Amino acid sequence: QVQLVESGGGLVQSGGSLRLSCATSGFAFRSATMSWYRQAPGKERELVARTSPAGDETDQSETVKGRFTISRDNAKNTVYLQMNSLKPEDTAVYLCAMRLGVFDSWGRGTQVTVSP
Predict the structure, then answer these.
(1) Beta carbons within 10 angstroms of residue 87's beta carbon
(2) Fewest CB atoms within 10 Å of the CB: 44, 48, 72, 100?
């Protein structure tokens, strides 16, 4: 059974930092592309960052480039999102996702709230 469990969200002041984690099980993690998405109330789900299976290739959305960093530990089946210089507009539910071939699965998300 594929499982993705996010943690690390919370309330932080503008300019602060958070590190999100997504612990996974039930699939070949080191073969999967892993991504972080976010969804704010009333807005569409947005891709935040993505990492290749080996972790040697990453990309981020223009709205977070230079502030957020995605990384993964294939020995721990875990993907991370380091978020620095947070802004109120980063407030959203952050979701972890995996893709392996044509199969994908999502976590339930963790809330990040950035106060002015």
Answers:
(1) 15
(2) 44
DSSP-derived 3-state class of residue 89: helix
For residue 17, the tally of other CB atoms under 10 A from its CB is: 11
Rounded CA separation 59/61 (Å): 7
Distances (CA, A) of 51 to 10, 35, 80, 85, 111: 23, 6, 10, 21, 21
Distance CA 40, CA 56 (A): 29
The position carrying tokens 């993505």 is 50
Half-sphere exposure of 96 (CA within 13 A, CB side): 28
Average pLDDT score over residue span 10-22: 98
Percent helix, percent strand, percent coil in the chain, to nearest 5: 5, 55, 40
Q: What is the pLDDT of residues 64-92, one digit of tens each?
A: 999 999 999 999 999 999 999 999 999 99
